[in-house]
Structures are given as structure tokens and as C-alpha cells.
Write a structure and sequence with these properties.
single chain, about 575 residues, mainly alpha, 4 domains, three-stranded antiparallel sheet, two-stranded antiparallel ribbon, globular, transmembrane helix, transmembrane
């Protein structure tokens, strides 16, 4: 037995193992195949896949100008030529590098400890762009100030918390048809792949085309127009081939089941991109490259936040801020709900009723982190789809999220290093994870158009609109219209005109099999009536739950222990008749 095996065994048999439901811990529901060392490796993989958010989020939100003030002129309508203003904006960016790191650390720890899910959290892509360019405007050119927009995000988190306590967000997750839920995960996989092949956060294989929107890219940076269109040199960028090398490395290492395959490839490509003397350097000899390299050379530094910490203005009298607040609410509800469910399903934590394990704690934690994130000057925090990289590495518990948080904690001190992972090193991970997540497409009910078409709309809209929320909304609306029309026509004609329901997916029976009233409210009702209450009456049924039928009843195994072991322990070996495996 190696020292790693000894460590895994010791952790599994401790209170830590029981809390995080590690295999061999004796917890009520152990998670099969979970090892402490595997969880740590998975968490670091998720961190390196998410690390780009440190620089990307700070770059996007600093475009709002933050708390910097400048008088616009005709010659300089957005103050881009004002050196003092741009210097202030750069300080805002450094503040947001620190703020993004702290937010990601706190939120990932909270989700790991309270919800026991292997999901990393950080300020969400998409919502940060909406916050910056639509609500506040480039360099504050919008109708809402930066401070007021942060106040709206703060309030949104509080509203989310109330919705989560009363089970409304969980209710929304359960009533979504199963085919659409599966399509959400597949759509997120395509969405991840689309991000991974672009230049901003990927390898740069595709680029903008003014006629067809996207086309084959891979041209050098100097060949890009101001709009980002390749003018010449397609497939001639050295960084593209570094990204493709990383993609091939990951694929080959995964084929041979090398542990840490994704992480190894990310680190290798990143290190080879740091020297300034090569053609694929992340720090070219340009003003921007010099600025990045100067920050990179600091290696260890802790930046003091002066421009973004706790900057709120609760003046909510204008209509624009309420429009922004409502938009944040519905986009975040669909985005986070879709991401969390898809990651939970990818990890095997979803149940037959359409919910996932510890969903209440997960949604409450998400709500709290939105409010906390606004205190550090950032847009809403959300679950990250890059968590799929860690799940693919074997992450199944909250230890993975805590390991991800540890990576962000270290990056507080080494932010110059962790902010310098080039997108072509992390992009291949997004493509690989996208392919893994799309594998669930086989489970969609393609035999019945009422299920298949809304599912297809869901998975197609996500990458095409660059929004998880729009994909979910499109799928749900199309499902209601298509199946609603069939239902109304069926009833109106007395069943004379009706589709073939024999191939329709019956998702509502399981979804409605459990009360929509939160468990804590059920407990209070039972106590007020003087009745006893079983906290496990709505127990989940997952793939690794085993039900053993005996003459005296049904015994459910929630620990992942084999049926033979249960039979031996309960003296049912001679009486057991069959074993059934239940999955979502």
C-alpha cells in the first residue's frame, strides 16, 4: 500500500470522508469510486480550466470604467485618449483581478462544503458582458452607473436566496421535461466547444465573418481587422497549432487513461508559451504584451483593492436599473439552474424526480455568492460549465470544489502567474469536455417529435446565441407550444385527432411523485399537527442505489456497497430474489 492509498483510507474513515460521502466512509450515501487524491486532482483540473476567468472577467468589467470618472468630449467620446482616466481603468482591472479571484475562492468553498458538489463557481461569462456593455456601458457611457449596477446585483442575490429557501428554483428544475434536461447538458457541451475553438478563450480555430458570422480562422493577430475578421493568413497562427497540439495530447493521454491528462496538457502548453523569444509567446513585444509581462514578472504580489470594494449606490429610482435587475434574475435563473443540473447529471447526482442531490443548499449557496460577489465589484457569480473538466477527471464530491477554491487562494498571491495561462492552453480542455458532455445525446427521446424537436432546439440555440439561458427558454417554449397544441386538439376532438402517444416520454410521473413543498416546511407542518416526520421519505434514487427485495420488505442501499455484502450483513443471502438498479 502506497502513502497515497494510506492517505485516501485515512481521509475516507474520518469525519471529512463521512461529510463528503467518500467511498468507504460509512456515510448514508457513499459516492462510488471516490478517493481523496482523485478529488484533489479533479479540483486542480477544474481550476486550471477556469483560471482564464481571472483575466477575462477583469478585462471585461474594467471596460465599464468602474468608479473612474471622466468628462466625455466630441474629440474623445468615451475617454479612451485620456491618460489619467485609462490609468485609473487599469487600476480597476487590477482590483477586479483580485476581486474575481477572491469571489471564486469563497463561492467554490461554500458550494463544496454545503452542497457537496464538484462544481467551481466564479463571475459568469455572458452576464459580465451584459453588465458592462449593456447596463453600465463602455467606460460608463450607459444609463446606469457602475455603483448602481452593483446594487442591483446585490439585491438579485437576496431575491434568489428567498426563492431558493421556498423551493421555487428547485421546482423549476423538476418541471422541465427530461429530454430538455438532457439536451441542456448536450447544448452546454456544444457551447463549451464553441468557446474552445474561438480566439478569446480558446485556440482560435474559428473567427468572425461578416457574411456567414463564423468561418475558418487561425490567422495571426496582426492579420485581424478591428472587428476581428481574418484578412489573410488563415491557419497560419502558431498559437492555433499549439492549441491543436494540446488537444491531441489530451486525447492521446485520455485514450491511455493517464491520470490528470487534461491538467498535464494545460500546464505543458502554458509553460511553452511564456518565453518571449518564441513565435507563440503569450507576451509579445507590444505595449499590451509589455504590460502583461511586467505583471507576470512580479510572480508574487497582493494587490490592494481601492476602486471596487463595497462600492454601492442604492438609488434605484430609474427604470433602467429595474430592467437590468429583472434581466439579471431571469437569465441567471435559467443559466445557473441549467448549468447546475447538467453538471449534476454529468456527475451522476440527478434523481428520477428531476432534482439533484443537495439542490436546496446548492441554490442557496449560489444566491449568497451573487451578493458576496457584488461586494467585490463584480457581476453575478454562477456555476461554471468548465467544472465538467474536473468531473471528467473523476471529481464527484465537494472536495473537488474546495480544491478548486484552493487554486484560487494560491492565485491571490501568485495572480501574475495564474492570470497568464493563455487561452490556447485551456481551450482544448473545453473542446474535450464538450465532447464528453455531448455523449448524453443518445438518451434523448428521438422517437417522438414532441420530445425530440424541443430538445434539438435547446441544444442548438445555446451555442448559436452564446447563451445557456436562451437555449433553455427556447426549448421550454417550443415544448409548450408543440405539445400544448396537440393536447388542445386531442381534447377538442374527443381524442379523434391525436398523435401516437405510445412513444412519448412520461417524465411528469416521476417529477410529480414527490411534494413540491420544501422539506423544512413539511417538517414545520408535521410538528404543528403533532405528527412524526421522516426526513428521508423523499430519498433520492440514483444509479448507484440498490434495492433489495426480501420477504419482509425492500431494503435500499445508499452506500454503494454491493448487494452480496448487504445480503451477508442482513442475513438475506438465501432469501434475496432480485436486484434492481435505478437511474435518472
Amino acid at each position: 500500500m502506497t502513502w497515497i492509498d494510506t492517505l485516501n483510507s485515512a481521509i475516507a474513515h474520518s469525519f471529512i470522508g463521512r461529510h463528503f460521502q467518500l467511498e468507504g466512509s460509512g456515510a448514508r450515501r457513499e459516492r462510488k469510486g471516490t478517493l481523496f487524491s482523485t478529488e484533489i486532482r479533479a479540483g486542480l483540473t477544474t481550476f486550471f480550466s477556469m483560471a482564464y476567468i481571472i483575466s477575462v472577467n477583469s478585462s471585461i468589467i474594467s471596460d465599464s470604467g468602474g468608479t473612474c470618472v471622466c468628462e466625455f468630449t466630441e474629440a474623445d467620446p468615451v475617454c479612451s485618449l485620456n491618460e489619467d482616466y485609462m490609468s485609473c481603468v487599469y487600476q480597476v482591472k487590477l482590483d477586479l483581478i483580485m476581486g474575481t479571484t477572491v469571489i471564486a475562492m469563497i463561492s467554490s468553498i461554500l458550494l463544496g462544503v454545503f452542497a457537496n458538489l464538484p462544481i467551481g463557481m466564479a463571475p459568469g461569462m455572458g452576464l459580465n458582458a451584459y453588465f458592462t456593455y449593456t447596463v453600465v456601458g463602455f467606460h460608463g457611457s450607459g444609463k446606469v452607473s457602475y455603483e448602481t449596477a452593483l446594487a442591483a446585483v446585490f439585491i438579485e442575490g437576496l431575491i434568489f436566496f428567498v426563492l431558493s429557501i421556498f423551493g421555487i428554483r428547485q421546482w423549476l428544475a423538476r418541471i422541465i421535461p427530461m429530454s430538455i434536461k438532457i439536451a441542456m447538458g448536450c447544448g452546454i457541451g456544444l457551447y463549451l466547444c464553441f468557446i474552445g475553438v474561438q480566439k478569446s478563450a480558446g485556440i482560435g480555430l474559428v473567427s468572425l465573418d461578416m457574411s456567414t458570422l463564423v468561418t475558418l480562422g487561425g490567422c495571426p493577430t496582426e492579420a485581424l481587422s478591428a472587428e476581428g475578421v481574418c484578412q489573410w493568413g488563415r491557419m497560419e497562427s502558431g498559437t492555433l497549432y499549439m492549441g491543436l497540439l494540446g488537444l491531441v495530447m489530451m486525447a492521446i493521454l485520455l485514450m491511455y487513461r493517464v491520470r490528470g491528462a487534461i491538467l498535464i496538457s494545460i500546464i505543458f502548453i502554458a509553460i511553452t508559451s511564456w518565453p518571449r523569444v518564441n513565435k507563440v509567446t503569450y507576451f509579445p513585444y507590444t505595449p499590451q504584451g509589455d504590460l502583461m509581462f511586467d505583471y507576470f514578472k512580479k510572480v508574487v504580489t497582493v494587490h490592494k483593492m481601492e476602486h471596487t470594494l463595497g462600492r454601492f449606490d442604492f438609488n434605484l429610482t430609474g427604470k433602467d436599473i429595474w430592467i437590468a435587475l429583472i434581466t439579471f434574475l431571469y437569465v441567471d435563473i435559467m443559466d445557473t439552474t441549467g448549468t447546475m443540473y447538467s453538471m449534476a447529471r454529468y456527475g451522476g447526482f440527478t434523481d428520477k424526480a428531476g432534482d439533484f442531490e443537495h439542490s436546496t443548499w446548492a441554490f442557496m449557496t449560489d444566491a449568497i455568492t451573487i451578493t458576496i460577489g457584488s461586494c467585490f465589484g463584480s457581476s453575478p457569480c454562477t456555476a461554471f460549465i468548465e467544472s465538467g473538466a474536473g468531473i471528467a477527471e473523476g471529481g464527484r464530491t465537494g472536495i473537488t470544489a474546495i480544491a478548486t477554491a484552493f487554486g484560487f487562494f494560491v492565485s491571490i498571491f501568485f495572480s501574475p502567474i495564474f492570470a497568464s495561462f493563455p487561452p490556447w492552453s485551456t481551450g482544448p480542455a473545453l473542446i474535450i469536455v464538450g465532447s464528453m458532455m455531448t455523449s448524453g445525446i443518445r438518451n434523448i427521446n428521438w422517437d417522438y417529435p414532441g420530445d425530440a424537436i424541443p430538445a434539438f432546439i435547446t441544444l442548438a440555440i445555446m451555442p448559436f446565441t452564446y447563451s445557456i439561458a436562451y437555449g433553455v427558454i427556447g426549448g421550454i417554449i417550443s415544448y409548450v407550444i408543440i405539445n400544448g397544441f396537440a393536447y388542445v386538439l386531442d381534447k377538442a376532438t374527443g381524442g379523434y385527432i391525436r398523435p401516437d402517444y405510445s412513444q412519448r416520454e412520461d417524465w411528469w410521473t416521476a417529477a410529480m411523485s414527490r411534494s413540491f413543498v420544501p422539506t423544512w416546511i413539511q417538517f414545520l407542518i408535521a410538528k404543528s399537527r403533532g405528527q412524526s416526520f421522516d426526513w428521508h421519505k423523499d430519498e433520492y434514487e440514483f444509479e448507484d442505489d440498490v434495492k433489495l427485495e426480501t420477504p419482509t420488505g425492500v431494503i435500499t442501499n445508499h452506500s454503494g456497497i454491493s448487494q452480496d455484502n448487504i445480503s451477508a450483513r442482513q442475513d438475506f443471502t438465501s432469501k434475496a430474489e432480485k436486484t434492481e438498479y435505478y437511474g435518472s
